[in-house]
Amino acid sequence: MGSNKSTLQHIPNAEELMEETGFSAAHIQRLYDRFQLLDRDQMGGLRNEDFEAIPELVTNPIKDRIIGAFLSPGKDMVDFPSFVRVLAHFQPTNSKRSKTSSQEQYNSPTRKLQFVFQLYDQDRDGKISKTEMLQVLQEMLRMEETDEQLQSVMEKAFQEADLDQDDAISFDEFKKSLEKLDISEKMSIGFLC
Amino acid sequence: MAPFLSLLIYTYLVLRCSSLTAPVDPSKSQPMGSSLGQNSSSEGVPLVDVPMALGVFSVDYHHVQAPFEIVLWIMLASLAKLGFHWSGRIPAVVPESCLLIMVGLLVGGVIYGVRHSAPPTLSADAFFLFLLPPIVLDAGYFLPGRLFFENLGTILWYALLGTLWNVLGIGLSLYGVCLLCPSSLGDVSLLHCLLFGSLIAAVDPVAVLSVFQEMHVNEQLHILVFGESLLNDAVTVVLYQLFESFLRLPSVSGLDVLLGGCRVLVVGFGGLFVGLFFGLVAALTSRFTPRVPVIAPLFVFLYSYLSYLTSEMLHLSGITAIVTCAVTMKQYVEANVSERSNSSIQYFLKMWSSVSETLIFIFLGVSTIQDVHMWSWLFVCATLLLCLIWRGSGVLLLTAVVNKVRRNKVTFRDQFIIAYGGLRGAICFSLVFLIDDFPKKRLFITTTIIVILFTVFVQGMTIKPLVDLLDVKRKKRALPTVSEEIHSRLIDHLLAGIEDVVGYWGQHYWKDKFEQFNRKFLRRFLIREEQQNRSSILRVYQELERREQGADRETVHPLLPEEMDSIRRILSRNLLQFNSRRPTYSRHTLHHDRALQRHSSLGERDTQFVFLCAVCAIGPRSISQDSSIPEEQTAPQHGPKKHLSFDIENEKNN
Question: Which of residues 405-424 of B touch A (CB under 8 A)?
Fold first, then answer.
């Protein structure tokens, strides 16, 4: 939309970000504007409170997991590059980049699946345990089902997905259970292309 | 059924009475208003002698005739509505509008049989001034604002260009048809055809609403069709008046056409500004109502109606005005007025619009029975066919262009619904009566009625099965597994959340600017002092509270969990129960939510799935423990559970 690379000079590492994530200069600019808008105390990073201030996000049942996904472990502030990297996961997969191998692109199907996997796997042990799945179900479905029903839903899901019967779903099992779903189409936000 | 029958019998008796109490000549009036006077109607009722003594009992129908008949009609309409919903199955197959028209036909036939003259018709004035405004006001007040403005470009594209395409297409091709058959249709000129095209091409919001209500369509589609039907009023009004004035002019020059084009803009924007003006004044007035809360709802109705009347007076688009007025004043009025007044406003709007709509359809049926028909197979069939063809082609073409710019593409299924769901209704009917008289006017009237009946009955009844057929054909794969469903839902929530984080692009800039302007000036000016500090977060909590209360009232009965295999049955049964109670979108829902919108905008999923998402998006309980809403601005209170995952992560990494 008119902005070219020279106007991005006030954004640190803009060119590297563009290379890394595949966003165009216009997108980086817009993301930066949005980042500035969200960063109310102008600390150069988004904290939990900044996310909480987004009114529509407050009503989202998995809000905390989403916010947690932005924050890298150990930090409590999201800086602009991390912000952009997380959002890069949501680009449609058939965007035009082909510089790096497809496995490293943020918006490859595998990376998208990894992102979702980490929403479940809050303790980052590489497996979804029964407790973690039950927690997610409770967050999403609390108004509708009783706990016993959620328990049975979770058991059923584990039955289907847990192929090696170790009471935990690894990333490969997760990937397999979603193979019929077109993840690259589903997990894309159209206006990010 | 009994009240309905008794009403019919009562009506019949009253009608017989009224025919006997024909207006008495003043020169011959009896002192006590005795009822059986000189009968000048065409019925051969014999004169009856009445003793000249003091009458102990008399019937003076004429004294109360006008309000009495109005009340009877409204009563008939309401009882008919009750009757339909008594049987659960009929409204599912036959849309309410069809049933009402049939009742109208029945009543019209009865009246014709009794009086042997035409039954009362729906006068254009009564329709435009009394029956139409409540419906449009109700629609405007409950318009999902954000969805509407997001899709505004597409809606305007369909409304303006689509209507123009339809009008010119139908008008010109009808003229071609008339040329083909000069013997019977020779005196229908080009301008007449264009005039006819302008009134028959417009999609009618009343008819659309009533049919779509029973058809569970996703919000985006609903807003496209409905928004189009609202906004094409501007084009219709202008073209109709344009062609009518062209008909009166001795000749038409290019300048006149150009001026006509300017008129579209004037009419549209004029209506918009009138609506804005009255909306803001209404908002300001509502600021001063806390001492007299009882009349607060009245201002809403008065100002809206005033905006409609003013724009009608100036020959601007009344529908645009009233919709703009409602949309403008809504947020300020809701903030200023007490909770009970808010409920009253909503309740009365729904009630009035419901009555209006019912009356319109009944009168459509009644007015069909009259003496003014002129039939021509060629003309009628050609019109029907051309309407369908031009609408279909228009939608296809426009969508092809607009899909390049939209992020949520309009799918083929959606296009079919838009094209096939373009129903005509009472607006066309009233407009055709307003045409200056010319030899073939009766033909036009008949054709209009046939087109309306066809669209409402045939298209209205068949659209749902056809859409289901289309859906069935596209269900390629088997039912998803439980894991897939869970993960899908999670992803939907995730995407909704990410979209909220990123904000809206495109409209984002203007939306942001408007919000700033709103916060700095409008809210401060138009909302009462105490209410201004309510942050948007507080409003969100109120929203959540309302949803929770709503969800409580509709709690699904806990079913005993059966074996593992029937988990799916449990889930789908819950969904079906929820399904039957709350359609995806209807005029009666007061709030929509993000996951639902995200889900449905992809357009491909099972409708049941969508409902479950609607429930999921109703946030968890733990947000506010007590049900009272804090008056002052407080930070959000979180239950301990919600922070569990986040804290664990923090703990582990600290």
Answer: 407-408
Residues A187, B496: C-beta atoms closer than 8 Å = no
* Spatial CA neighbour of A119 closest among A135, A108, A103: A135
pTM beyond 0.80: the answer is: no
pLDDT > 50? residue B404: yes
CB of A150 closer than 8 Å to CB of A157: no
* Same domain, residue pair B418 and B532: no
Sequence-distant (6+) residues with CB within 8 A of B76 are: B7, B11, B103, B107, B362
In a domain, B188, yes or no: yes
- Residue B439 — φ and ψ, nearest 5°? -50, -40
**Distance separating alpha carbons of residues B10 and B65, to the nearest angstrom:** 15
Largest CA distance in chain A: 59
CATH code assigned at B317: 1.20.1530.20
Question: Do B423 and B529 reside in the same domain of the chain?
Answer: no
Q: Assess A131–B contact: CB distance below 8 Å, yes or no.
A: no
B146-199: pLDDT as tens digits: 778 778 888 888 888 888 899 989 989 988 888 887 777 777 788 888 888 888
Last residue within a domain, chosen from B522, B544, B566: B544
Q: Which of B360, B364, B443, B470 is nearest to B132 (CA)?
A: B360
Poorest-pLDDT segment among B285-289, B568-572, B593-597? B593-597
Residues B415 and B461 in one domain: yes
**What is the predicted pLDDT for the residue at B313?**
92
Q: Do B483 and A178 touch (CB under 8 A)?
A: yes
Q: Do A140 and B490 touch (CB under 8 A)?
A: yes
The predicted pLDDT at position A1 comes to 42
Give a yes or no: residue B270 inside a domain: yes
The reply to whether B13 falls in a domain is no
Q: Angle at Cα B371 formed by Cα B368 and Cα B376, nearest 5°?
A: 80
Same-domain status, B513 and B372: no
Domain C-terminal end among B544, B574, B589: B544
Write the residue in B561, B636, B643 that is nearest to A58 by C-beta.
B636
Nearest-Cα distance to chain B for A60, in Å, is: 6
Give B 172-211 residues with CB within 8 A of chain A: none
Helix (H), strand (E), coil (C) string for B494-522 = HHHHHHHHHCCCCCHHHHHHHHHHHHHHH
- Domain residues for the domain of B198 are 124-470
Question: Which of B331, B483, B568 to substitute to test the interface with A, most A CBs within 10 Å?
Answer: B483
* Domain count across chain B: 2
Overall average pLDDT of the B344-372 stretch: 84
The one-letter amino acid at B348? F
Mutation site for B-interface testing, chosen from A49, A56, A86, A162 by largest number of B Cβ within 10 Å: A56
Please list every residue in chain B whose beta carbon sits closer than 8 Å to the beta carbon of residue A68.
645-646, 649
- Which candidate from B487, B503, B649 shows the least CB-CB separation from A122? B649
B79 located within any domain: no
Is there a single domain that holds both residue B535 and residue B392? no
Is B281 in the same domain as B157? Answer: yes
Q: What's the one-letter identity of residue B458?
A: V
Q: Which of B411, B479, B500 to mutate to test the interface with A (most CBs of A within 10 A)?
A: B500
The answer to whether A123 contacts chain B (CB < 8 Å) is yes
Task: Quote ipTM for the complex.
Answer: 0.89
Predicted local confidence at residue A154, as pLDDT: 81
| One domain for residues B370 and B506 | no
Chain B residues close to A142, C-beta within 8 Å: 620-621
For the segment B11-56, what is each residue's pLDDT rounded down to a tens digit? 556 555 555 444 333 333 333 333 333 333 334 444 455 556 777 8
Same domain, B466 and B519: no
SS3 A166: coil
Average pLDDT over residues B597-617: 37
